[in-house]
What we know:
The structure holds two protein chains of two kinds. By secondary structure, chain A is α+β, with helices and mostly antiparallel strands. Helices cover 26% and strands 19% of the residues of chain A. In chain A, strand 5 and strand 6 form a beta hairpin. The radius of gyration of chain A is 24 Å and the shape is elongated. Chain B is mostly helical. Chain B contains 14 helices and two strands. Chain B has a two-stranded antiparallel sheet with strand order 1-2. In chain B, helix 8 (162-195) packs across helix 9 (208-234), helix 9 packs antiparallel against helix 13 (320-346) and helix 11 crosses helix 12 (289-314). The termini of chain B are far apart.
Amino acid sequence: xxxxxxxxxxxxxxxxxxxxxxxxxxxxxxxxxxxxxxxxxxxxxxxxxxxxxxxxxxxxxxxxxxxxxxxxxxxxxxxxxxxxxxxxxxxxxxxxxxxxxxxxxxxxxxxxxxxxxxxxxxxxxxxxxxxxxxxxxxxxxxxxxxxxxxxxxxxxxxxxxxxxxxxxxxxxxxxxxxxxxxxxxxxxxxxxxxxxxxxxxxxxxxxxxxxxxxxxxxxxxxxxxxxxxxxxxxxxxxxxxxxxxxxxxxxxxxxxxxxxxxxxxxxx
Amino acid sequence: xxxxxxxxxxxxxxxxxxxxxxxxxxxxxxxxxxxxxxxxxxxxxxxxxxxxxxxxxxxxxxxxxxxxxxxxxxxxxxxxxxxxxxxxxxxxxxxxxxxxxxxxxxxxxxxxxxxxxxxxxxxxxxxxxxxxxxxxxxxxxxxxxxxxxxxxxxxxxxxxxxxxxxxxxxxxxxxxxxxxxxxxxxxxxxxxxxxxxxxxxxxxxxxxxxxxxxxxxxxxxxxxxxxxxxxxxxxxxxxxxxxxxxxxxxxxxxxxxxxxxxxxxxxxxxxxxxxxxxxxxxxxxxxxxxxxxxxxxxxxxxxxxxxxxxxxxxxxxxxxxxxxxxxxxxxxxxxxxxxxxxxxxxxxxxxxxxxxxxxxxxxxxxxxxxxxxxxxxxxxxxxxxxxxxxxxxxxxxxxxxxxxxxxxxxxxxxxxxxx
Lengths: 268, 419
């Protein structure tokens, strides 16, 4: 064995290794080109995700709990009956008992059918309610999304434009990402047998339209925009200027990007 | 109309209590009983292998009689370890994507590699090196199907010279040494699958992999005792008490460690009392009362600890028959307890909403994709495979070969030695 090692053979091997390393970028480009041909993307050809950074902001004080956004989302994205890509929560916080020394009483949360068709009046007598408000919920577009981190095959990923997407033709349906999402935004689609979630209406935003929920919201509680291409008098920028914003479950280190204005500490 | 009725029914179902995120309002948890079976089987593999390693690596001679039985048990369970996962997948036909296009930050993807490594590079190789000499000998004497099987398993290596046998023994030992960290890695990864989920206060815990490893050792050792005693009973031979006593000692100390670590986990949770502790306490006290407090803590841990602990102290005063009875019942209790522990982790983590404001319930289906039947079948399958293995590789009618491990002498009472 040892007598076969010659300078020529060593050089040959080295050249092979260097050649292999040099050929890698070219190989990757070829792979990407082939994937591009076969990829089934909701985005039109010519859309460059690197040129955009989408963001959603939610104004709690503006939400009237009509549930139109949930309905629009369902219709637009063919969301299964008992699952939700977005939903509305109603918070009812009661007055503290007299002499209890507390600043607030109990908190009751409900979201019947995700808020579709609005909410029936609360069963708690009006005089017992300290405050009540609606909170729209959706994918938090996390910067360090725990859902994409745990996917065993990389079927879910953070697009460069900020959307967190699932490739349903690649997902094996293990449910790990659904467990990993702290916000309950993912679900197991019983029709495709894969994980499913809000795509920010990717088929719409890549064509210059707004997501269905933003489009339909009658009170402009949902503000959507492109951080890289602000329009004149950008609503997203105005929202950020005029509000103190907060994110959900920030302590988990997921880097949620969806900005909430007027959030109460009870909201999780 | 139908949709409205369905929605109303789901809303009216008594299985939700408090506020649960709409996507969590499913009829049964996303990871159901199949995912309970999966870490259980994997743990049994790791534990049984560690039991076998005690003979090879730590040279515990008294455990010789169960060496091969432990390895075969590990293999039988290993072959079934991924089945529950596979059945649970939404797209089982895409399962090989885990190996072909792995996502390296995912514990589940890494588990695929650790599993393949453990099955191919550790278990099968160790068994082959250990059995090679026997395969060669048996292939010369046996005919028919058995002869074909043994001949095939020699893989054409029929050299029985002294240096070749010495190489077998040396390779076996090296693989065992590599195998111990691999066994820890295998089950540590299973623990990490749960421990890495920070969204869930029940799971997201750095102690989780350690708890899984230690409980795996406990369950695997208990399984070895169970299999050995059962085999002796089935073959109507008396178990080697020296081996049994020693196995039980190891089992007892592993159980002490397991109880201490799990106790520490709860102590830490209760003392630090982070967000969500109220939910966890209430899940433990109500929804998991029977499986956690009664099944896992009392019957699965405390009772065996007392039984086996007292055996350590007053072993000599008790007759062999009574000792065997205590050992057998303790191992059965431990095996049930560890199954309950897996249930508590997997199902318990899905009985409360991630909003920390409400609870879900789980009523297991009887038949169906994720019901009693399939999980029982998956739990029975490794035992069926093990029976076949024993029939072919631990058969009493096969000629005895002394000193398979050079330098070690088979104990006269071992099942193999009594052939």
